[in-house]
Amino acid sequence: MSPRRRSVVTGVGARLPERVVTNDELSERVDTSDSWIRERTGIRQRHIAAEGELTSDLAVAAARQALERAGRRPGEIDLVLVATSTPDNTFPATATAVQRKLGTGPAMALDLQAVCAGYVYALTTAEALLRCGRARRALVIGAETFSRILDWEDRATCVLFGDGAGALVIEAEEGTGTVLDRGILAAALSADGRHYGHLYVDGGPSSTGTVGHLRMNGREVFRHAVAALVASARETCGELGIAPGEVDWFVPHQANRRIIEAVAKRLEIPEERVVMTVDRHANTSAASIPLALECAWSEGRLRRGDLVLASAIGGGFAWGSVLLRW
Ligand code: UT7
Hints:
The chain has helices spanning 23-26, 34-41, 55-70, 94-102, 118-131, 155-158, 218-239, 257-267, 278-281, 288-298; strands at residues 4-15, 19-22, 45-48, 79-83, 108-112, 137-145, 163-175, 183-191, 199-201, 214-216, 249-252, 307-314, 318-325. The chain is of the alpha/beta class. It folds into 2 domains: 4-175, Peroxisomal Thiolase, Chain A, domain 1 (3-Layer(aba) Sandwich), CATH 3.40.47.10; 183-325, Peroxisomal Thiolase, Chain A, domain 1. The strands form 4 sheets. A 5-stranded mixed β-sheet has the order 1-7-6-4-5, sandwiched between helices. The radius of gyration is 18 Å and the shape is globular. The two termini are 20 Å apart. 52% of the residues are buried. The site of oxa(dethia)-CoA has 18 residues, from helix 2, helix 6 and helix 7.
């Protein structure tokens, strides 16, 4: 193997809004129950942003924590990438709001829109920019305020989502080119627009001129999710010649406990190596993977040198996986 530039994680941060909404509280609003939500999804509660608390506010708080833990100042960052489907405004990019609030200086800044697969898409994109030398130190943030695009009368969707943000600082380092290197080692991304209508928002600047509400055919998403996540995890691990069962941690997108369990079972990854936060956070779309990574890291489970497989799927459908050594 020849030396290769790797994108190594040097800091992780998270921010959840203060307000916690339990299933019981939701059942006062729509015709649902704590037992239905728990049994079908594993969700117990979700965090909901306060009035005036924007996606960029959550992103900035998560980014500050990640920078502090990486021992870096905002001025040392030359790429700000925000994965989000709930930007502050239609434009400019939420990443530029984050940049202004953090004071990163003239870094490259952009948003990436791949809904729940946003974070694996963003990490893969940032890694490519670091590898080719366009940037050296990136803030890769997943941040969402899905509460703003939910139809709070629709019990089939409003119980499933929450708000939050997670961030990683990743930095270019020279590796040896082997599987033992720290950093992002492999990735696979896919999308299939034939499924556009199974999970979408019924508004937008070019179609209705409104923001719109989330609409989902949950059963169809469920059916495709398991098969796509399994295939994507296998393809990504296959790049390194390993089986998914050999990773130290599986960090899937947190949409539904049943999906996560079905995928882990097919991949032969034991339960104790699966990071599960859907009970506490619900589905936070592009924020769910970095939030889960932060939980595993701050609880002392995820350690330097661990092999981590992150996989996600969402609207589009868009899906993918990233394999990295922490
Ligand atoms: O992040 C992007 C990826 N998104 C996902 O991964 C979501 C994937 N889908 C799912 O997680 C599941 O399909 C859901 C959790 C959304 C739904 O679970 P399900 O087991 O597929 O239930 P269902 O949609 O088949 O609905 C079963 C019943 C229906 O009643 P009938 O038609 O059987 O009388 C629904 O009307 O449950 C009813 N229902 C509810 N009942 C109480 C739907 N939502 C609720 C609710 N409370 N909140």
